[in-house]
Write a structure and sequence with these properties.
Elements (H helix, E strand, L loop, with lengths): L18 H20 L8 H5 L3 E5 L5 H17 L5 E5 L7 H17 L6 E6 L24 E6 H10 L5 H20 L13
Parallel strand pairs: 1-2
Antiparallel strand pairs: 2-4, 3-4
Length: about 200
């Protein structure tokens, strides 16, 4: 784990910020959700919580993985205790900009779930600007199913996912369909969606 010698929760592990920067990060994330995830129907379960305002957004100011763990614990506690929030996005623009480091951190996130007693209750899904599935080339359009403007951890209730899967025909086909959609769209079509960090954002990576 990078920077593991820094004190967990230390102010040195978080960069000073202003609220308007968080607003811009969330706005860019909402645009990605509306234009790509919902617009291309990459996730058939996303529209209902989005339309019902049941998606939580939080921006981590962590600059180390240890500080991000603190924010992840906080985000998981909030989701577990919230009745009106169905799923949440923990966006962390200033840490884990390298996809290999981010991918390694997913094991840490799963360990946090287990330690909190939330394994099987909440799961963590992964999105990153440089997402790359194992065995694929970096430019493979199939990777864009999980490409987001910033690194983020998607926290979702398994009960909500199970309810939707029970009513969705052939859920195992979703992944294959998404790859087909994105390969037909092509890189030029993806670029036209303007999935990118907010203008003027000073996030690292």
């Amino acid at each position: 784990m990078k920077n593991g010698n820094q004190r967990t929760g230390s102010s040195a592990a978080r960069r000073p910020h202003d609220p308007s920067a968080d607003t811009a990060v969330i706005a860019a994330t909402r645009h990605w959700l509306e234009a790509a995830v919902i617009g291309l129907n990459l996730c058939p379960f996303a529209y209902a919580p989005h339309a019902g305002n049941r998606i939580g957004y939080s921006v981590s100011h962590a600059t180390t993985t240890s500080a991000l763990v603190v924010d992840l614990i906080d985000a998981l506690q909030r989701l577990a205790g919230a009745e009106t929030v169905e799923t949440s996005l923990l966006i962390h623009p200033r840490v884990l900009g390298d996809f290999a480091d981010y991918n390694d951190f997913l094991d840490v996130a799963d360990d946090v779930l287990v330690r909190m007693g939330l394994d099987g209750i909440i799961q963590v899904a992964s999105f990153h600007p440089d997402y790359q599935f194992s065995g694929t080339a970096a430019e493979d359009m199939g990777n864009f199913t999980n490409c987001s403007p910033y690194p983020m951890l998607h926290l979702l209730r398994e009960s909500s996912l199970d309810r939707v899967l029970e009513t969705y025909p052939d859920p195992d086909r979703i992944y294959e369909r998404n790859i087909e959609v994105l390969r037909q769209l092509g890189r030029e079509g993806w670029d036209q969606l303007e999935i990118r960090p907010a203008v003027g954002d000073d996030a690292d990576g």
